[in-house]
Structure formats: C-alpha cells, structure tokens
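Predict the holo structure. Ligand: manganese (II) ion.
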Amino acid sequence: MMRIKRLEGYLENEGLDAFIIGLESSICYFSGSTSGGLLILKRGEEPQLLLPKLNLEFAKEQSRGCCLKPYRQKDLLELMEKILDNECKSIGVDELPLSLFNKIKEKFKDKVFRDRRDVVWKMRRVKDADEVKLLEKAGDLASIGMEAVREHLKEGVKENEIAAEAVYAMMRNGAQDRAFPVIIASGFRSAYPHADVTDRRLREGDLVTVDIGAVYKNYRSDITRTFILGVPTKKQREILELVLNAKATALTKYKDGFKCSEIDAAARRLIENGGYGDYFIHSLGHGIGLDVHEPPTIGEENSETLTAGNVATNEPGIYIPKFGGVRIEDTILVSNGEPKKLTHFDETIEDLTV
Ligand SMILES: [Mn+2]
C-alpha cells in the first residue's frame, strides 16, 4: 500500500527501526480498519495490526495490506515482545494512552521510544485524490443538513428539534454519522462557541448558531451558519457583517504558500478594527479529515504554510456574553489554484435572516 510504503521511507530516513501507531484515525489511515488497537510497522516487513479479539471479524472485512493479530488485553505486552525483537532499537510512536506507554517503557527498557507524531501528520495533512472525493461528499452532506435546518427554523421550535432535522437529513442522504455532537446555540446561548443542544424554544429576535458536520466513509466535514430570527438589530447586523467580511478576506488566503498565522491575522485584524477583537476568542480554523480537528491549525501561533491538499475550516466568530454571538464556517480545500469550498450554503445577511 502506498501510504505504508511512504511511512517506511520515513523510517529509513529518520533512522527508526519500527513505528507504533496508536491513534485510531491514523490506524484507519494506514490500514482501513476503524477498530483501534495498535498498528506496528517494522522496516521491511508487512505491518501488523494488533487488535482486540472482539474486532477481528470486522477488521478482516475492513483492513488491507496488514497482518491481523488479535489479542486479549492481558496478553498485549507479550504479543508486542514477539514483534519488537532485538533488531528494533529506535521506535517511533504517534499516540498511546499514557498507562499503556508507561507499561511499554517498563517492559522494553533497552529500546528508545520517540514521539514522532509529526511523521504521521506530515502525511495525513496532505489529502490525496481519493480522500478529497470523500471529503467533498462529506461537505455536500453537511450542506444538505444546513438546508434542512433553515426549513425548520421558526419561532417556538426547540433547539433539539432543529438538531434532529439536521442529523436526519444528513443520514437520509448517505451520511454514516454526524461528525461531532451538533451545536444549536440560540438567543443568549449563541455567545457560547461550543454550546450543546437544549430544549430552549427559538424566539423572535434570536441569533441561532448551527454548527454541524457529516461523516462519509470516515471522512468529516464542518459547517456553521448563524441565522437571525426576524428583523436584525443594528448590533446583530454589525457583528454578522464583520464576521462575513473576515471570512471572505481570509478565504482568499487558503492557498499554497500562505502562512497559517497570517491567514488568522487577516481575519482577526478586520474584527479588531471593527471593535470586536476581544470577542473573537478562538483560532480561525482547524484541519479536518478522518478527525474533526487535525493539523494544520489556522491560528496565531502556527508558522507553518499551507500546501495543496490541505483541508481546513475558515470560521471567524464574535461572542458577546449575555448578548449572543455569530460564527460562519466552511470547510476549505487548498489546491494549486483558487481555494475550494467543500461545504456550500448561502452567506449574506438576507439569506441568513429567516
Ligand atoms: Mn469547526
């Protein structure tokens, strides 16, 4: 398999004898299996997927290009001992539960374990053509979910009823699941960037922030719109306009060669100049793929540059405690030319007023 071959290339270049992958999504990336466990790659050998026995049959169906090694929890270290023989001295690791990592270090005192998450992310952050197709589909499904939301937004409807419509529409149209717990933040609750869903009923004059995503063949999308129920007030209009402008300005920079911190700064500057800098309390965006939050972060502290194949969100927001807030978000593919939106939904104040 291409991906395994490339990982092997990294092992050679970096002087590692083996690599242990413990992050479930990375195991899926390299093996196709979503059953977790550990994927161990030794130079020159077929990768071995150690997985809890209960998932063996499912992994037979899902996985490709690796040898399946079912284990019972109590036998895991023994099984690892057979694989990580004397030739394995320097071992790269991506992510393991701390308790397991401590046991491994205790058991294999003569080996050196190195945190090399960067090796895996260097690969995962550049999506290939197959991944892009799945991400496009996930984006289309989230967009369908948002259409369903708009149809059901009216005074008296509960937040959880809106959430149900979104998930129903996405799954009826082919989504495997929602990409993360739905956020419906209405009225004063729209000031919470990561609100949950309650049984609050929508009221005339509410800002209603809806943040949803779909999963399609394990790939995720992310979209947010803030709607206004009724005629927007001057202040509601002001913050929504600012966020829409910040998003449009930032979008032009989701291109090969642009620095993540500069893209964030472009959006932030606009919101600061509008007088709401203190209320934009998160990064502009995050990478997305098999996980909903992945590298690269589009934020102030990330000096990495974007490259073609990166997929990340563009989601400026303004959150004013007790008043309410707005966030507008799309999932964006960085290509060799213009940035491509993978989620699609209207974004003018008129369109967002229901
Ligand atoms: Mn997001």
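The CA atoms of residues 128 and 309 lie 7 Å apart. The mean pLDDT is 97.
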